[in-house]
Design brief:
Layout: H1 23-36, E1 44-48, E2 63-66, H2 72-82, E3 87-93, H3 94-100, H4 102-111, E4 116-121, H5 156-162, E5 167-172, H6 176-188, E6 193-198, H7 210-216, E7 217-219, H8 229-237, E8 242-249, H9 255-270, H10 276-281
Parallel strand pairs: 1-2, 1-3, 3-4, 4-6, 5-6, 7-8
Antiparallel strand pairs: 5-8
Helix pairs in contact: 1-6, 3-4
């Protein structure tokens, strides 16, 4: 087995993001994290939805699935269930994952599939030229909202904690070293790992620029207990700054493990030659 290096994951397609986009740093951090775990390209799949950040599969040499808008998670979960030996990583943006894909985000958290979900949040629909997204801040002015955005924004970290995701972290694309550590932790975690990455858009979002985000970013205190969900929620809510690091991390049965239990019961009823009908029988 070849010992992988970060550059081995470089795809044939050159990244098409704008110069200065935070997604470049996320891509670099992901490559470094995969290399540390020696992920083989033929044993790894990147699944995405639609959006700037969802172009990830094109820029890597692994298997890739560019799905439809908001559907990266169900595709990723299905892939992991069908091929449990594959390293499955879902990627997408705030619009893709919190708008049309919000419902899938909820159920992925509670089911706890053994996949990693990286969400790059630029607080805007950048691919379609700058409409407000579920995380846009009040006062944001766009072509579609010339009199300023007036809706409260969604808090992705708080959502993940509420849905019982078993690994919840937040990073900032201006700190690639921390990004690598958080992504590495997510890839190593057994269960649903959600990594929220604040990745400013240099083209369409002037409200949340790199300069403004850098002023409020701060690391979670070293004494924070990652198994204390209530305390994690307090930091997710914190008005004094944007905390980064691992908010929550626990081990609990994965979706795949629980499904194996269902199959085992079917085998008890019908032996190794069971069919889907035998799986259903136990619920009648």
């Amino acid at each position: 087995m070849k010992q992988m290096e970060a550059n081995d994951y470089k795809g044939k397609v050159k990244p098409s993001w704008c110069p200065g986009c935070g997604n470049h740093a996320v891509l670099a951090a992901l490559k470094k994290a995969m290399a540390q775990l020696n992920y083989q390209t033929h044993e790894t799949a990147i699944v995405s939805g639609i959006g700037c950040s969802s172009r990830f599969p094109f820029f890597l040499s692994t298997y890739g699935f560019h799905s439809i808008h908001g559907r990266a998670l169900p595709v990723a979960i299905g892939l992991k269930e069908a091929r449990p030996e594959i390293n499955v990583i879902a990627v997408g943006g705030d619009g893709d994952g919190l708008s049309i894909g919000g419902n899938h985000f909820i159920h992925a958290g509670r089911k706890n599939p053994n996949i990693t979900y990286i969400m790059m949040d630029n607080e805007i629909y950048a691919l379609t030229k700058g409409q407000c997204s579920p995380t846009s801040r009040i006062g944001t002015i766009t072509k579609c909202n010339p009199y300023a955005w007036t809706a409260d924004r969604i808090n992705p970290v708080l959502m993940a904690l509420s849905f019982n995701a078993s690994y919840v972290a937040r990073g900032y694309s201006g700190d690639i070293k921390q990004l690598e550590e958080l992504i590495l932790g997510g890839l190593k975690h057994k269960g649903f790992a959600f990594i929220h990455i604040v990745s400013p858009c240099v083209q369409y979002n002037k409200v949340s620029s790199f300069e403004k985000i850098k002023e409020i970013v701060r690391n979670l205190p070293s004494e924070h207990d990652v198994e204390d969900k209530i305390n994690a929620m307090k930091y997710a809510f914190a008005p004094e700054g944007l905390y980064t690091g691992i908010f929550y991390k626990v081990e609990r049965p994965t979706y795949e493990e629980r499904y194996k239990e269902v199959i085992s019961k079917a085998k008890e009823l019908s032996g190794d030659n069971y069919t889907i009908k035998d799986v259903i029988k136990q619920f009648q």
